[in-house]
Predict the 3D structure of the following.
Amino acid sequence: MIRFALHGGAGVIERANLSSENEVQFRSEMARICADAVVKLQQGASALDVVEASICQLENFALFNAGHGAVLNANAEVEMDAAIMDGRNRACGAIAAAKTPKNPITLARAVMEQTEHVLIVGAGADQLAAKLGVAQAELSYFVTEFRAEQQRLAAKLGKVTLDHDSIFNAPVLTSGLADPRDKKGTVGAVARDAHGNLAAGTSTGGMTNKMPGRTGDTAIIGAGTWADNQTLAASATGHGEYFIRNAVCFDIHAQMLYGGQSIEAASAATFARVGKMGGTGGVIAIDHSGLIHMPFNSEGMYRAWFDGQQMQVAIYQNDLL
Amino acid sequence: MIRFALHGGAGVIERANLSSENEVQFRSEMARICADAVVKLQQGASALDVVEASICQLENFALFNAGHGAVLNANAEVEMDAAIMDGRNRACGAIAAAKTPKNPITLARAVMEQTEHVLIVGAGADQLAAKLGVAQAELSYFVTEFRAEQQRLAAKLGKVTLDHDSIFNAPVLTSGLADPRDKKGTVGAVARDAHGNLAAGTSTGGMTNKMPGRTGDTAIIGAGTWADNQTLAASATGHGEYFIRNAVCFDIHAQMLYGGQSIEAASAATFARVGKMGGTGGVIAIDHSGLIHMPFNSEGMYRAWFDGQQMQVAIYQNDLL
């Protein structure tokens, strides 16, 4: 009964704005990472280990907005957020606004397992990485030419690209470059292992040209990440402020636990509320029975999953039609 | 139908460890701040304004662990967290690990009202305060001799006083000094104004000798603070990591909204789960109908409230017997 799903962010993803070359890159990378996760789960790996390992791979892939290839803030620096949670006991760890962990999700797991804490933010997170021997990297490791150009343009225009701003359709950014806008690229994974245990994790660079210290839902347990064997494992992506105000992942959990709702009905109600406020994004989730559900109210969401029978990869809403 | 409640933290508060002089100080200060809030609400002030104003006063009172008198981290610096939320529309703002805002709750409100964001952490929060003209102060403003001594002792013993550690019963700390242990002192307020609107806020210095960057539930919307006119306004205090893992304030909200539970039944279920994991603390809450409920599973919680008829102040479990 193993299950797995990953995402690479949700947003305004239109076929017209994604070159076929880049589309192939995204799809093949998601397929490779998903297949690797499935093999590990089949070999008996824990949901938690597989979530961490697959998010490390997503962080290492330059085109997603996490780890290597994270977006740059207003100071042209990376500030990365990540969280991980174990559905067996609600153990969890998170970091926010960290500048040095090569794999932010690994530092989040270290917070969970090697400290008494849940969340470490700012310079303290970088100091903790050094103290615990979690791999760190210089700014140059994280920055890609695409992200540097994206930030320069946003800064020039005085924009914090919180929304899926059309400035990122500018030819300078789309010519030969993937991910023409800012909000696609947060990564996440959810898994159910052979023992029926659930785990979830999420990692992001946040918003292009963001205010230093701005933290979205990714680092917030209950908003961007949640796992409880009783209900579901979930990882969110989207306009983080709306996801915090609606405690999105926990809200789905609570409707299942307290309202007896299915994962589909619960997610629909949560996204109706988020959408009414003006928020867009998506969630990948696996419920306690192994059902995979991946709702989103944006135009697209990079995603791949294994439903116990077959593996699939998708980007657009109607991808599978 | 105005209502108001405040807290000054929950923890191991035993009559034997609190001098009668300090007890008088705590009680009179809470009474003064509560009375001031009630007058403002009677004069038509909004729940949001009253929550902010009363938390500023709690922060300014040296004996509580927030603002002036906040505890010191392992670097003997203050790192303060705060959050505020408006029950009308779930608007919210929060800061974590900030070193300079004179009144952290005011900076949290500025995040809510003057930025597009919800949470700003670390050095970015201090930079934002400067940018927005929110009052800042030097370290010397925040540090009291009691807190400096408390941190020196904790550091000497290599303790991060996450728990209500008995080292803080040491004579050096109790002789003539209030607040002998570390975890009492987070402050919070909830209000219901004449229009029936709810608001909540929380502010803290966190744990004595804490790891730099450690963030507890106070800054986490849904964990330490929540307000929604449909259900309740709530502010938590206690062992923050357990409160995050149980999304305490949102969990009570969700049981009311999705499970049709009363605030008492919902709180009891939430605290049963927190307690089973080993967490202690409390919540002050006002539900949509104006009912005040202030559960805690620790020995005491500094609190004051106005139930529409009379104002009361309490510290111990059996305070009113």
Q: What stands out?
A: Chain A touches chain B at residues 79, 90-92, 96-97, 115-125, 127-128, 160, 162, 211-216, 220-223, 240-241, 244-247, 250-251, 254-255, 258-259, 261, 277 (CB under 8 Å).
